[in-house]
Every structure is written in C-alpha cells, then in structure tokens.
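Input/output pair, single chain:
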Amino acid sequence: MRYPQGGGLTAQRREMRERLRFQAAAGFARGDTNTVIAKQLRVSVRSVQQWRRDWRTGGREALRSKGPASLPLLSDEQFRVLERELAKGPAEHGWPDQKWTLARIKTVIGRRFHISYTVKGVALLLHRNGFAL
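Output:
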C-alpha cells in the first residue's frame, strides 16, 4: 500500500496491524492456508502471503511493526512557525487576495523551510494538526 508524502498509519493503526500479523503467525504455525487466514482476519490474501514470507525468514519477530513509514517533514516547532506565517494572510506572502489554497500553503512551506510537499501532503499535514479544509 502506498501512502502520500507525510502520510501513513497512526500509531494505533500500526499496533492493530501488528496484532493481525501476530494472529496470522499463529495460523501459520497451525498450518492454516493463506486463504483461510485472510478470510479470518479480513485482509487480502496478498498481505498474508507477504507476512508468511517474512515469518518464514524471521519468525514472529519479523512481523513486528517497524514504526512509521516516514516522519513528518515539518517538526512541531516548524509547524508553529507555519501557523504564524499563515496568520499573516496570503497578501503578506505576495498573493493578490486573502484566500489560502493548498498550493499557496505548499509554496509558503517551500519558501520558508526549503522542504517540498505535495498538495495532498499539505492537506494531510493540516488535517493532522487540526485544520478543517
């Protein structure tokens, strides 16, 4: 599964997926087929196939969560700076009107922090930090 820039599963969802992988490991040990395990856990057969490959090479420990796929590009402190920049309004940043768009916010992030986000990544960043879009 591919996730947009700055995206991924929350810690809670990663823990839930890890529990599913551990349940699958119990099924592997019992000799259950991939199809049976997938149906029981309500996941794709393809996921179970990958988990089984990992389990064969590294046992149950190989199914442990490896943490977030990527860390957010902006730190909490940088996000607070971004909030202050956005509070100044778009005109302060050179746009002719007072309407913030995701593309404009992406540009401000690039100019201020020299970090490249996608428009979708900006939407996720704002949503994660409590902004309603």
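Residues 11-63 form one domain. The chain has two domains: 11-63, 76-128.
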